[in-house]
Design brief:
Number of domains: 1
Family: Belongs to the anti-sigma-factor antagonist family.
Structural class: alpha/beta
CATH superfamily: STAS domain
Distance between the termini: 22 Å
Shape: globular
Strand order of the largest sheet: 1-2-3-4-5-6
Number of helices: 4
InterPro entries: Anti-sigma_ant, STAS_dom, STAS_dom_sf
GO molecular function, one term: anti-sigma factor antagonist activity
Pfam families: STAS (PF01740)
Order of helices and strands: EEEHEHEHEH
Protein name: Anti-sigma factor antagonist
CATH topology: Transcription Regulator spoIIAA
Largest sheet: 6 strands, mixed
Helix content: 25-40%
């Protein structure tokens, strides 16, 4: 843990890179690359590890070039797992290619989206502070 109260973890695969920081009681995961069937196991491991011992997981999707139905499924599974324990998943995404799959599947209305990681952290603080 560094002096700012952040733990940082970096994981990589040829097609997916994730940087995870723990900020207070939240885990922030920045994803880059592709979240698809080939990176499913790594992404699942990253998300499950991030969810350990926190009240919220914030996933910044803006670094992704592609998000498949496999990635959507993993995010929905994490949302359900966290919600069952009165914890939350918050997503940050601005680009059309990332938002469109959520809109087409109706998941955009079920999941929590924020404009920035800072905004998501503020919402978590209000909900759990």
């Amino acid at each position: 843990m560094n002096m700012d109260g952040e733990d940082r973890l970096r994981r990589t695969d040829a097609q997916l890179t994730a940087a995870t920081a723990r900020i207070g009681d939240a885990a922030v995961v920045h994803l880059r690359g592709t979240a698809d069937l080939e990176t499913r196991e790594l992404l699942d491991n990253i998300l499950q590890t991030a969810a350990e011992g926190v009240i919220a997981v914030i996933v910044d999707l803006d670094g992704l070039e592609f998000l498949s139905s496999t990635g959507l499924s993993l995010l929905m599974q994490l949302h359900n797992k966290l919600a069952a324990d009165d914890r939350e998943l918050r997503l940050v995404a601005h680009y059309r290619h990332l938002l469109r799959p959520f809109e087409l599947t109706g998941l955009h209305d079920e999941l929590n989206f924020d404009q920035s990681v800072d905004e998501a952290l503020a919402v978590v603080a209000r909900h759990h502070g």
